[in-house]
Amino acid sequence: MKNKFNTTFIKLFKRFFKQKILLMILIFVMLLVIAFQLSPPILIKIGIDKYIMKGNIIGLNFIVLILVCIYSLEFFLSFIETYITQKLSQQIMAELRSDLFKKIEKQNALFFDRHKVGELVSRLTSDISNLEQLFTTGFLDSFLKTVMIIVIVIILIVLNFKLAIVVIAVLPFVLMLFVGFSAIVMPLYRNLRVNTAKLSAFMRENITGMSVIQNFGKENAHQKQFNVVNEELSFNYRKIISYFALFFPAIEIASAVTVALVLLVGGKMILSSILTIGTLVAFIDYIDKLFSPLKELSERYNLFQSASASAERIFDLLEDQDNIVQEGRELFVNPKGHIEFKNVTFSYFQEPVLKTISFSIEPGEKVAFVGATGSGKSTVLKLLMRLYDLNEGEILIDHHKSDEYELGSLRRAFGWITQDPQIFTASVADNISLFNDNITLDEIKMAAKTTKADIFIEQFAEKYDHLLIERGENLSVGEKQLIAITRLVANRAKILLLDEATANIDVLTEKLINQNLEQLMKSMTTIVVAHRLATVKNVDRILVFDKGRIVEEGTHDELLKQKGVYHMLYKYQFKK
Questions:
Q1: From CA 140, how far away is CA 138, in angstroms rounded?
Q2: What's phi and psi for 218, nearest 5 deg?
Q3: Which of 42, 84, 514, 563 is deepest in the core (most CB within 10 A)?
Q4: 2-318: what CATH class?
Q5: Does the pTM of the predicted model rise above 0.85?
Q6: What is the chain's mean pLDDT, rounded?
Q7: Please, are residues 543 and 367 in contact by the beta-carbon 8 Å criterion?
Q8: 3-state DSSP percent of the chain in helix, strand and coil, to 5
């Protein structure tokens, strides 16, 4: 575990050291700050021994003037140090957030099946925030304090070796405290990050589904679940705090014992005329400066532990290659719409969802997939889009393997409409263009006119600039579907995938949407996934799925005559 801890921080520092110019300036400024912070005790020693003890007021005034100048310069340099530190940190965190988001975008659907949304959001927000605190108030300041401790020890040795031995003798006990504290607290902080992500995921899931919880009167049951998750997080915090409550006083005691020993030994040396009063005062001042950074380092130790746990989670995601979709190099241009599955087998986890299925669809053909829930219909669409990779077999699109195509160009060829289309918190225009700057406003309006979505869009005061909220909560179900259809028209999709696209809308809106879809189908290869068989009567061909296999194929009338699975489903639906 310790090796993983060290490796994680090495990866972080590699990113930090990329900013070479800023880093060099920062280190130079930090060294100047250390020099100015450690100068006053020496000047005070000189002032006491050389001027106060000898009654030299002019020399004492000169020492005071130098001290004022040093404190003023230290203030100015500390400002520069803080500014550069913050700038460096923001650059690194922005780069890290960007890399994380790019990594998430490249994952296949299996990755999102295994990771909760709240967990991923936690990595992009709270975990990054922890690292930001590490760089701004943790790492750089800790580096400064560590250098300061080393320099102070050297100064103490130069001032008086015998007194320095007294101070140095205490330091191994302080080091042992650090090591023991680290071994205990590090696993607790790792658990804390897991608990925090778990709570975040629970909150997001339950807030999103609050209407369902309230509808079934399950508030108390979900409150109990929340209390369990919340208590796990709170329990970890309490354990960590209890260890800190022991650790901080231990450092204070070590500091007090060191001062007492130095006073005892130093006082005897002054009485023996082998040590000056100024040197003893400087020694005590340096002891305070020695233990102050030790206390600050111990106070920041929780930040290091929390940040290291966050860094592990972030780099685990950045280096995860298991769910990355491997792209081909061939651009998919001028798609014709020919699709062929050859002995395709696929499973999400262990049990196959599709079992050696084969079929082909000609350009411009309209084909429907029907079958019971869980028979594999929608999975075929996901495999076409390469949201998942196959276990066995091949998928050919326009007579080329789908994994030979560059992923972006492949997916742009498809227009996929589900029963719950994704609406983003953005304007109507941006939701139609999907933030594609190459699609002009005139093209967006033309697409909306084609699908008749302009009828309700023009009723908004801001029209195409009207802001849609998360998941399209300020739109009806039918309006969301019209936005989705307009989106694929504007983006010039060539292969239409309809996955229960009209399942949740009223009859009048369904009629309008079906009219739009019929116009689109005339020039596009179309696959329709449907449970309501009345919606697929007019397609060219129907494939019947049952338990991951294609068991029947034909037109609506042909399948009814076979009196097989399709006939049974049809009779059941219309009997109802």
A1: 6
A2: -105, 25
A3: 84
A4: mainly alpha
A5: no
A6: 80
A7: yes
A8: 70, 10, 20
